[in-house]
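Why does this matter for the project? Reviewers at the last site visit asked to see concrete outputs rather than summary tables. In response, this paragraph embeds two records directly. Each consists of the residue sequence and, immediately after it, the corresponding structure tokens. Nothing has been edited or filtered.
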Amino acid sequence: MSVNTVKGSGVITNPNAVAAPEAAKAEKAAPKSSAQAIYAKVKDAPSVKDAANVQISPRAKELSMAKKIAEDTPDVREDKVAQFKEQINKGEYKPDSGKIADGILREAIRDEIAKDPSIILG
């Protein structure tokens, strides 16, 4: 459609012809809807094929193996308990107080670091 005006009167018979450029400016200035914003982010995301190609780092494999070993290790080592019971009953158990103190301190330090890792990370 074309713009039809009556000469000299300034009357526009097709108001959309003038409004179209203004509408385009308003559309550009208007904020995108949430759906448009999400689409803009998602359109550059990797394809399903690319997302299916996952590489597991050597560190992740080590951690997985360590977790498996920890899960398979019993909480109480009955063999050690029996050994210490036997030594205590015979009067042969002589604990090393230095090793005990070191163990207590090591565990306390680990607990504090677990609460606030910035202690060692600065």
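We now turn to the second protein, recorded in exactly the same manner.
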Amino acid sequence: MEYKEYFYDAPWGLLLQVMTVVSILLLLGMVAIGVYQRPDDQKIWDLVMIVVPLLTMAIALLFTIRGYVLCRDALYVRRLGWSTRIDLAGLRQAEFDPEATRRTIRRFGNGGLFCFAGYFKSKKIGPFRAFATDLRRAVVLSFADRVIVVTPGDPLAFVERIRHLRGLPKATVAPSSGP
């Protein structure tokens, strides 16, 4: 059997662009205040106002989602320097649903500094784990024990490919405007 990989990019949506710029400006603003308003000999000040904001940006940057590599048995979320592997065993359904993440609550994770990643809950799909950059391109991967949302650049092609690779029944497209 031939082993094939299919790459899908992860374009940034307007919401992620705006949230990333605003977050960076706020964090750099903290650093500027920390440097220019620094009291003498205040280690805690340096930690809170300079180190923590810079470390937050550096760590978030490392977790940037650069794309997705789809194989027959796994989906790899490409980051800076490594990939997160998602085993596709037990995948029941793959569906493009641009409305899946509306009215979402973040439970734990990154809500908009270079990506949307972590654990969330929405009224429509319940609890899910996200690896996203443009929520209008949401592809919902439903397993028996979990739901994962990814946002490939071409969600319809992604759904069709994963459906074909995993032998899933015809996927549906939620009624709404596409990307």
